[in-house]
Design a protein that fits this description.
Radius of gyration of chain B: 20 Å
Strand content of chain A: 25-35%
Strand order of the largest sheet of chain A: 7-6-13-5-12-9-10
Number of strands of chain B: 22
Largest interface: A-B, 46 and 41 residues
CATH architecture of the largest domain in chain A: Beta Barrel
Shape of chain B: globular
Distance between the termini of chain B: 25 Å
CATH topology of the largest domain in chain A: Cyclophilin
CATH class of the largest domain in chain A: Mainly Beta
Helix content of chain A: 10-25%
Structural class of chain A: alpha+beta
Largest sheet of chain A: 7 strands, mixed
Order of helices and strands of chain B: EEHEEEEEEEEEEEHEEEEEEEHEHE
Oligomer: heterodimer
Number of strands of chain A: 13
Structural class of chain B: alpha+beta
Number of domains of chain A: 2
Strand order of the largest sheet of chain B: 13-20-17-18-15-14-21
Helix content of chain B: 10-25%
Number of domains of chain B: 2
Shape of chain A: elongated
Distance between the termini of chain A: 40 Å
């Protein structure tokens, strides 16, 4: 799987964090290394190591420099990096997102279909087929950056973003797909909507998804929503 | 035990030292913009440094005490009036029930804080009382305070509020607030994505704080900072104090409500000891940056925090009540 192992760089981020960067491209095997390293660092239970923020190709590691010597942390990370290809990679959970496609739930569905010379049924079939990896989370609380969308349903962003997109809206921007986790302004082409809440601060587990999970959209009829 | 908001001033929210541990899910830290001032206010009234207190911007709040309480007001450019009589800021003051407490925010500095013995009793959301307005999370119903809000206070740790009054952090023990500070930065993590001229510009020119600044980020304007190549990067994690430089070449510094990830190259990171100085800058402030080592950053931070954590306050007898003894 790990054919071209990128050279990892350990970079200072102020005096209380480091960033471990794996190359400069978006690819599943690189993202898997980020999660393998995150898991391995957590398993060490090092004093003074705080929260970690995984992203497409880097891992940000917070630490308390009064409890954890940065050289010691860097040394530990280097030794983990040397054995990274044998570290266990978690496949993540598979989370199904029941989605109403098109109609009022997806006001840009017709555009996306026309733009790609497909029928709406084709767009639904293509969009709901893959298991999308959650490469990272950000933008708003609970928002997943999903990888692996089929380029046959790619569509440009709206020239003028909507002032309000409701939480649960499923959209396409370029060759990316995602789900709005909050009501917010947004420029993605909306093709559907889900009733599941990606973020609910009153739930015991506020976030539906975790970085490293996989997501599959399951088409449901509008009346089932 | 509670206080009643008579006039909320501007952008008055409940904050503590922030919501840590959920950034990997995209949840910003939030918390006080000037975390030193919030921590100091809490420590003066006998609270843990990380206790829910009030933060306000540009215009201070007016509230009425519905019970006896111990308050400390801190920040840069704050004055405290109780029933039209002035009392010192950065000092714990015992206030009797039924008084009108008016906090004035002067033209100096951006943020002020008011902490009460026992803290503002709001439920913790994901481990923190901090308000994150964009998602209406935490604090007082996730929003800014409004006139008429009655905020309950927690149980004070000190057995006697009167005995805990009159503690002060004198000016020499506070951050060196200034209208136009020089901020120390640690270069990186992506300083190699800028040309030598770009780095040189960043470290030698003045950058002016613009009006497009908020709790998420401070946008600066000054000499353009030149990238070596593309200014769009694959998004990665960012920290408070990260100096991002988009294609415009004009830097944006990430503040308390910053998004957890960002896709612009980060030329440098403001050291933690200087974050309060940065937070307290007002629109139009001319900032300068100077590069230091991580070692220096630690020494400076330790020196700043020493008096605070050791509770090295001065005790004043004259302010044991809200009337001079």
């Amino acid at each position: 799987m790990i054919a071209e192992k990128p050279i990892a760089r350990i970079l200072p981020v102020g005096e209380a964090a480091i960033s471990v960067e794996f190359g400069s491209r978006i690819a599943p095997e690189i993202n898997a290394m980020v999660y393998a390293l995150e898991g391995a660092i957590a398993a060490l239970h090092m004093d003074g190591v705080g929260e970690t923020i995984p992203s497409y190709r880097s891992l940000l590691v917070h630490f308390d420099p009064f409890l954890c010597d940065p050289h010691c942390l860097t040394g530990q990370v280097e030794s983990l990096l040397a054995r990274l290809d044998v570290l266990p990679a978690s496949p993540g959970r598979l989370v199904e997102i029941p989605t109403v496609y098109g109609g009022r739930a997806g006001p840009d569905m017709a555009f996306v279909a026309r733009h790609n010379h497909l029928s709406e049924e084709d767009v639904i079939a293509i969009h709901s087929q893959p298991e999308y990896p959650v490469y990272m989370m950000g933008f708003t609380p609970g928002f997943p950056y999903l990888g692996g969308m089929d380029p046959r349903i790619a569509a440009p962003r709206l020239p003028n973003p909507r002032e309000q997109v409701t939480a649960g809206s499923v959209g396409i921007a370029g060759s990316q797909t995602g789900i709005y986790s909050l009501n917010s302004p947004g420029g993605w082409r909306l093709i559907g909507k889900t009733g599941v809440q990606l973020f609910d601060p009153t739930r015991e587990v506020p976030f539906l998804l975790s970085p490293g999970d996989r997501v599959r959209f399951v088409p449901i009829p509008a009346e089932a929503a | 035990m509670s206080i009643k908001v008579v006039d909320p001033g501007f952008l008055c929210t409940v904050q503590d030292l922030g919501r840590n541990g959920y950034q990997r899910f995209g949840m910003p830290i939030s918390g006080a913009m000037d975390s030193y001032a919030l921590a100091a206010a809490n420590i003066l009234v006998g609270n843990d440094a990380n206790t829910a207190a009030l933060e306000f911007h540009a215009v201070g709040p007016i509230f009425e005490t519905l019970a006896d309480c111990l308050v400390a007001v801190t920040g840069y450019g704050v004055r405290l009036w109780i029933d039209d009589r002035e009392f010192p800021a950065w000092m714990s003051i015992f206030v009797r029930r039924g008084r009108l407490v008016h906090i004035e925010k002067t033209d100096a500095g951006a943020w002020g804080y008011a902490a009460f013995a026992g803290g503002i009793a709001v439920p913790a959301v994901m481990g923190s009382a901090s308000t994150y307005l964009r998602a209406a999370v935490g604090g007082w119903y996730g929003r800014t305070l409004q006139a008429g809000d009655e905020l309950p206070l927690g149980m004070p740790a000190a057995p006697s509020l009167i005995a805990a009054a009159g503690r002060e952090f004198p000016p020499q023990k506070r951050p060196a607030y200034s209208a136009s500070p020089t901020l120390r930065v640690i270069p990186g993590p992506q300083d190699d994505l800028f040309t030598p001229a770009g780095l040189q510009a960043f470290l030698t020119h003045d950058y002016v704080l613009t009006g497009q600044s908020d709790r998420m980020g401070y946008r600066l304007e000054g000499a353009g900072i030149e990238h070596r190549g593309d200014a769009d990067l694959i998004s990665d994690g960012i920290v408070t104090g990260s100096v991002q430089v988009p294609a415009s070449g004009q830097p944006i510094i990430m503040m308390a409500d910053h998004q957890t990830t960002g896709g612009y190259p980060k030329i440098a990171t403001v050291i933690r000891a200087d974050l309060p100085l940065l937070a307290q800058c007002r629109v139009g402030a001319a900032l300068r940056f100077c590069a230091v080592s991580a070692q220096t950053a630690l020494i400076v931070y330790q020196a700043l925090m020493k008096d605070l954590l050791a509770k090295n306050w001065s005790q004043h007898e004259t302010f044991i009540d809200n009337m001079r003894a």
